[in-house]
Amino acid sequence: MKLVKIAAAMAFLAGGTLALAAEKTIGQKGKLFSEKEVSIKKGDTLVFVNDDNIAHNVMSSTAGNTFNLGSQAPGKSTPVTFDKPGDIQVICAIHPSMKMLVKVAN
Ligand SMILES: [Cu+2]
Description:
This protein is α/β, with parallel strands linked by helices.
């Protein structure tokens, strides 16, 4: 009886962990990010998909949340997990028109 309860509690915890870390896809069609602003939670992941027909270079130089995906060919997708809260400016190093804000809540 006790073992059954522990197993049930562990299953609940495992499910809860999965639900906490969300994943959202951001496209880059027509030299534009699919969202201008997105609100996520600490530990969530954004998957940057290049659904355009040219290469892009998604990056951020916001202190504490810097990353640089390098040249991303059409059709490629790359996940980025945001571990620190704050407002993060995400840009494309090649196309100045591509900008978005990622708001990471604690
Ligand atoms: Cu670009």
